Amino acid sequence: MGERQSLLLIEADQPSRDFVRRALARLGFTVTLAQSGVEGIGQFAPGLFQLVVTDLHLPDMGGLEVLRKIKKSSPETPVVVLASNSEVSDVVQALRLGASDYLLKPIEDETVIEHAISRITEAETLAQENREYREKLERRNRELRDNVEVLQRDQEAGRLLQQHLLPRTPYQYPAGIEAAYRLVPSLFLSGDFIDYGLFGERFIAFYLVDVSGHGVSSALVTALIKHSIMHLLREKPLFTHLDALHDDLLEILQTINRELLATRLDKHATMFVGAIDSRARKLHYAVAGQIPTPALVTSQGAEWLPGKGRPLGLFEQGNWQVLEAALPSNWSLVACSDGVLELFSGDLLEREQQLLNAIDTSRGDLDSLCSALHVDTSDPLPDDVTILTLRQS
């Protein structure tokens, strides 16, 4: 009863008043007595009493009026009404006006009073706990909103940084070769990444990588891959000699594989890496677990290029193969991350066939293909979607 020590008892009947007062005193209350409604209203003030007990039959005013005035002045103060069996209708009205409980006179057992007070105490304790819980929940919600805002700002900064690391699109290279891409993350940041560049006047090297997972961690791995490749290019003169192209492509895959295994980030990646020999009209490429494989579009139509090899970051040896494909005078090369397959229905083979049909219909044109796949719509995507195209016409 530590939180409910002060109580106002409004009762004109002395025997009843004395009995109730003694019972309340034994429960730990300091009881203030009033013998009329006017006297009780005069002594009441919000916050002064933790509980009010009032008789419904008072000499100067009705107990219901006393209840109305107390509730108007202090809605949170619990009020218990005393009534006789003949005043049951007044009891119902009192409960409608906000009375917490009622006791029927004559009261001959103190446990009746104790039970009523216990019910009110438990209800007040529960109400206080609910208020504290709501306040705590509101604080947590405010903190969560603040944290979400910080996270959104950080992710937006990360998105801008990731976009800054991407190459320009479209980009024209010598011999009329154009490189272009569309990268649409399912979240703020993408686990997909692409890059391309000219080496000397003859070789155009490129890659598309798809890191497992989503969000910040996957995006950071794409930055690590970009850094590793750039560091390798600074150390060695890659893509400068025709007879070294195969070794150059394998070294890139081996370097990324070692980096992912060493970081122990529980991340792996699929990758398509290649180099176009513009002078000999030939594509040299390797596939590291990439699904779907790249598609080559010629006057004969679109077809998947063969290729196999393990994903990066899972095995010490990837068993990658460097393959070659002759390029006619007019061709398009289309590489997609596996998120593109999520835009179709059916099993994997059916989805790959639908994608190949769309590539064939678009003739490898990036804008036409993205329009046919509805890549640029505002609808959320189930996975990161990246499409890389290289073409010569």
UniProtKB/TrEMBL annotation:
SUPFAM superfamilies for this protein: CheY-like, PP2C-like
Gene3D superfamilies: 3.40.50.2300, L1 transposable element, trimerization domain, PPM-type phosphatase domain
Domain Response regulatory positions: 6-120
PROSITE patterns: RESPONSE_REGULATORY
Residue positions where 4-aspartylphosphate is found in the record: 55
Coiled coil: 120-154
Key words, A-Z: Coiled coil, Hydrolase, Phosphoprotein
Pfam families, sorted: Response_reg, SpoIIE
The name this protein goes by in its record: Response regulator receiver protein
Species this protein is from: Microbulbifer flavimaris
